[in-house]
Amino acid sequence: MPSTSSPPLVALEPRALGLLPPNPLVSILVGNYNYENYIGQTIESVINQGYQNWELVICDDGSTDGSVPLIQNYACRDQRIRLLRKPNGGHTSALNAAFSNCRGDIVCLLDSDDLYLPTKLARLTAAFAASPETGFMIHRVVRVNEQRQKQGVWPLSDSLPDGWVGPDLLGTGGILPFAPPTSGIGLRRE
User: FRET label pair with 24: which of 10, 108, 125, 174, CA 20 to 30 Å apart?
Assistant: First the structure.
């Protein structure tokens, strides 16, 4: 019986990207599962951005706490905030559902217990505009404890990857060494 699988991937090439519009829409994707104690502050950190052309797509992954009514309250007050709901399937499935429902030129990820600094989106959109060939950006994140006290920076001392890393990803099985957690990731929708 002939194989129906695809041939192994042996090379990756950079993809040419189009220019971003002058004021690109940024989609912020959040997967939420029982983060009632944090999700309000997370949403507020997006609302308080200096850059205001954004949409916040929150996919609730079957929460059983009071986070859904809290998110709904924000969505009723700001049309840029959308709530999707689905049965529990894990964080990745929630982010995939949010991605399927977003419209942004730039896509950022945000964990439901994390905060964006007020300049995050302005700095990210400026960085993408300054480097139109770039499709994926990462940055360091400040780690805090439950009382929001600074605990350090991640990654602390390692250099962040820079430039075309496609061949490296093939060699590491898709793992980007020293990459920050979810909230330090931004990418072009293309």
Answer: 174
